[in-house]
Amino acid sequence: MEEHPVVVVVGYPGAELLDIACLTTAFDYANRAGATPAYRVRVVTPAGGPIGCQSGLTLQAQGALERLRGPLDTVVVSGGEGHEAAAANSGLVAHVRRLAHVARRVASVCTGASVLAATGLLDGRRATTHWLFADLLAATYPAVRVDPAPLYIRDGRVTTAAGVSSALDLALAFIEEDHGGELARQVARGLVTYLQRPGNQAQMSMFVAAPAPANDLVREVTAMIRNAPDADLRMTTLATRVGVSERHLTRLFLAHTGQTPARYVRLARTQAAARLLTSSRLSLARIATRCGFTSAETLRQAFVALYGVTPSHYRATQTGRPVGQTTATTTAPSPNGTSSSMQNSANDLGTTSLRR
C-alpha cells in the first residue's frame, strides 16, 4: 500500500455532487486536522473526462477510471440519477470490480449501491441505499439483502451508505476507524455537523418521512401526541378526547399512518427522547419522565428497538459527551470525549437501577 492512503471516489454522468463533495471534503479536513499518513483523494470518471452532475454543475475528474491501478486504500462509488445507466455500463462495472479487488475497503453512497450490486460484490450481503430506491435495488438484485432503514451498513470490507448526506457519516466513520475518535470529532467540528450518527440510526424521522395525515381527526390526534408526549396517551383517553370509539380511531390511524395509535405514541416518545438526548444534559431518568416513559429502562428498551443502540451510546456518538456527564440543565452540550458501547449500556442500566 502506498505511503499515503489513496481514496478513490467514482463518479459518472448524472452523479450527485453532494455525494462526492461530502467524501472529498471530509477527508481533506482530516488531512488539515493532522491525519498521518494523509489521505490522497482522487475523483475518477469514465475516460477521465468531466461529468455533468445531477444538479447541472460540471465536475472535472482527477483521473480515468480505466487507467487507475492499485493498491488502493478505499474505493467509494457515488450515487445520483445516473446510477442505472452506470450499473448497465459493463465497462464501468468491470473496472469498479477490478479496483475493488485491489482495495482495502469498498463502499457506495446512495444509489451507488446499484453499481456495487452490478459487480456482484453485494451478493449475499446486507446493504442499504437511499430509502426511495430501496425497493428498486431489491427487485433488480434479488441476491442482495436490502435494508432501507440504516444510515450505513458494514458487511465485511464492503460498506453501503444511505442517501446523500449519509456520505458524511460514512467518511467520519472511516476517519475514526483509521485515526481514532478525536480526529473524527475535530473533522466534524470543522464541518459543523453531528460528531457521528450511528450507522444503524434510522434514515428518516417519523416527522419528516411523510406529510401530515390528510384526515382531520388523525391530524389532531397526532398533534396531541407530538406536542405532549408525557401526557396520558392511552387509547381510551385519545378516543374520548376526539369523541370516537377506540375501534374507529384504530381504523383511521391504520388507514392514514399505517400504524396503530399505540405504535405511533411509542415512536413519538422515543424520537422525542432522541432529541432531548442531543439537545440537553438531562439524565436518562429525567428524559424518560418528560417523554412519557414509566422508567429509564422502558425508554432504553424502546430506544434499542427503534435505533439499534442504547440511549447513552446515541448521546455519545451525537455529542461526544462522556457517559455520565449529565445535569438538570438544557445547556447545549460541548463536543468532547467519547465512551464505549459497554460503558453506555452500563450507564443506561445504572440510571434505571437508581430509580428503583
Can you give a write-up of this model?
This protein has 356 residues and is of the alpha/beta class. The protein has 15 helices and 11 strands. The strands form 3 sheets. The chain has a 7-stranded mixed β-sheet with strand order 5-2-1-6-7-11-10, sandwiched between helices. Strands 3-4 form a two-stranded antiparallel ribbon. Helix 6 runs antiparallel to helix 7.
Mind telling me the C-alpha Rg? 23 Å
Shape: globular
Mean pLDDT, all residues: 84
Q: Beta fraction of the residues?
A: 5-15%
Helices and strands: which structural class? Answer: alpha/beta
**How many extended strands?**
11
So how many helices?
Answer: 15
Range of helix content: 40-55%
The main sheet orders its strands as 5-2-1-6-7-11-10
Helix and strand succession?
A: EHEEEEEHHEHEHEEEHHHHHHHHHH
Largest sheet composition: 7 strands, mixed
- The N- and C-terminal alpha carbons lie at a distance of 55 Å
Low-confidence stretches: 204-208, 322-356
Provide a brief overview of the structure.
With 356 residues, the chain is an alpha/beta fold.
Features:
356 residues, alpha/beta, seven-stranded mixed beta sheet, two-stranded antiparallel ribbon, 11 strands, disordered C terminus
SSE order and pairing:
Layout: E1 6-10, H1 17-32, E2 40-45, E3 51-52, E4 58-59, E5 63-64, E6 72-77, H2 83-88, H3 90-101, E7 103-109, H4 113-119, E8 126-127, H5 134-140, E9 145-146, E10 152-155, E11 158-161, H6 166-179, H7 181-191, H8 216-227, H9 235-242, H10 246-257, H11 261-279, H12 284-290, H13 296-307, H14 311-319, H15 341-355
Parallel strand pairs: 1-2, 1-6, 2-5, 6-7, 7-11, 8-9
Antiparallel strand pairs: 3-4, 10-11
